[in-house]
Amino acid sequence: MLKKFIPKHSGIHRFATLALYRALLRQCRTLPKNVTVSGTVKQLIPMRFHRYKRLDSPSQIANAMKAGYEALDLLHSVSRGSKRDARRISKLINESESRKQRSSEMQRQMTEAKLAIPKTASQIRREEAIRFQESTAKTHPDATPILSRPRPVVSGKRRVPVFVNARGIPMLRIKKPQPRILSGIIRSKLTRRERWVNRENALAVDILFTKDEDNWDKLTVSQDPVPWTKEVWEALQQTKRTIKNNDIKNSEMAKAMWNVVLRERELAAKEEAAAKGGLPANDESVASGETSKENLTAKEDLAAAKESQNAVPRQPELQTKENFTGKEELVAKEESPAKDPTVENDFAAGEKMVAAEEPQAKKDSKTKEDLAAAEDLWNVILRQQELEVQHDPTTKAEKERLSHGK
């Protein structure tokens, strides 16, 4: 596979372009003083060469070199006093300036049109996230340590923090999104621990090589009193202690943060209970979890008032036959003196007989209704059969034959 040709790395190409560049700059010095565009031409030459120095296409490079040599011939002609070529240079520069102005004006209009387009919800959220990350890049001057919580008094509803474990790094999330400085702290701690772990692994491998060196020294009867393994072993133990101490520190911090969460939950529950009871959040009775007798009385009165408002009005009792009979019996029992037990037994026996006859009467009436319905159904069936016989031609012929036979 052929190697790609990069013109700017080629010495031949660089020699040709630098020669053209120097020739153009030298020719600008020889322009007559009455030519007003001499300074502009001297500024345009470095700008054009800087723009086209990364060209890789052979055709584009050839066109650019051709334009450069034509410009060199034109400048040489102007330096010799050609007014026509001087006007041509002025015209080319003016066209270039006007083209540049039109391009900048078009770019400005496009920018204004883009700003006039209403932003979508995702764009607004993205811009807000960028502004938030920029504003939280440094620690706020009024920030308090996280372990100083819970705050005794807060404005509004108390926000209970959430305990989060970020790959072994404990933290308390108050709200989202996460501040940029907190993300940086977590990232730096994780990077530092990863560096310690990598060092521990590397030292564990180095110990194997140091053991080989010590074995070689034993074989060669070396007089070195300090073994090779000593320094590496001490470094490995120091790294392990560092990792262990860091983990212990994170564990203690996690316990302290969890205690903060528990205390915040306690205060939030008390404040919520106080808000429901219509009491201030910092009331001593609420803080101690006790309620006075006046508060209980007020709560009972409030509950009774709500029940009276929500209660459905009681409908007047209908004077049914059973109710009326029951009331009469109650009045009769209250007014009448004690009755003879024999009479009462006879009365009870009579009621039982009446109660036994009522189901039998109901059964008899139901049987009569069933018989009447069956009779009606039978009559309908007979009527239908008679109609079929009347409309059947075979039956008519049979009747005529029988009548003639008679």
UniProtKB/TrEMBL annotation:
Record field: compositional bias (Polar residues): 307-323
Domain Complex 1 LYR protein: start-end pairs: 17-73
Amino acid composition bias (Basic and acidic residues), ranges on this chain: 94-105, 291-304, 324-342, 359-370
Entry superkingdom: Eukaryota
Protein name: DNA repair protein
UniProt cross-references to CDD domains, sorted A to Z: Complex1_LYR_unchar
Pfam families: Complex1_LYR
Annotated segments matching region Disordered: 94-113, 273-370, 385-406
